[in-house]
Amino acid sequence: MAEIYEKWVAAHGVMIVTPVYWGQAPGGLKLMMDRMVCADGGNPDPTSTSGKDPEKAKKIELDGWSYPRHLAGRVYGVVTHGDVSGAQDVREALSEWLSWNGLIDAGSEACIDRYIGYWQPYATSHDMLDDDGAVSDEVRNVARAISEAVSELRAGRLSVPDAKLTPPRMK
């Protein structure tokens, strides 16, 4: 997980492309999200708590922890795809999680959900994905939107209307 977190920290933009399994995000993706708790105001420095000493962690938090959003300011896009249901729900959940962590969505073309092989046999679903050129083009557009948003962000031209607001609740 430490290697994955380092990649998130180094990134200017993030793109999550995932299938939907039984209306949910795949287990590996969900585990990664759960383990990135430090991105949501957690303490990224294990030395301050001697590893995972809960009493030390509680003291740090109760002494006035600011709950910093460590990944805030990065740009994101999301692509979810399924064959019968849940693609929109998973896209919305991922977008909400990323936004909650302070990431910026790259625009209306950067977060999409699609059904591929809708109600068709599992045996042919990969063929249907390979044959759906429009979906491939849409995924490329998500990547293009992220790239453009990152360029604008780095040049100081990306408008983030709520960037200067102070949240009334720290957590």
Description:
This protein has 6 helices and 4 strands. It has helices spanning 2-10, 27-35, 54-62, 87-100, 125-131, 133-154; strands at residues 13-19, 75-82, 104-105, 111-115. It is of the alpha/beta class and 171 residues long. Helix content is 41%, strand content 13%.
Defining key terms:
171 residues, alpha/beta, Rossmann fold, four-stranded parallel sheet, 6 helices
Helix content: 40-55%
CA-based gyration radius: 18 Å
Supply the CATH architecture: 3-Layer(aba) Sandwich
Secondary structure tally, helices: 6
Structural class: alpha/beta
> CATH top level?
Alpha Beta
How many E strands? 4
Query: Distance N terminus to C terminus?
Result: 24 Å
Q: Biggest β-sheet, characterized?
A: 4 strands, parallel
Number of domains: 1
**Unreliable sequence segments:** none
What gross morphology would you assign?
globular
What is the fold-level CATH name, i.e. the topology? Rossmann fold
Approximately what portion of the residues adopt beta-strand conformation?
A: 5-15%
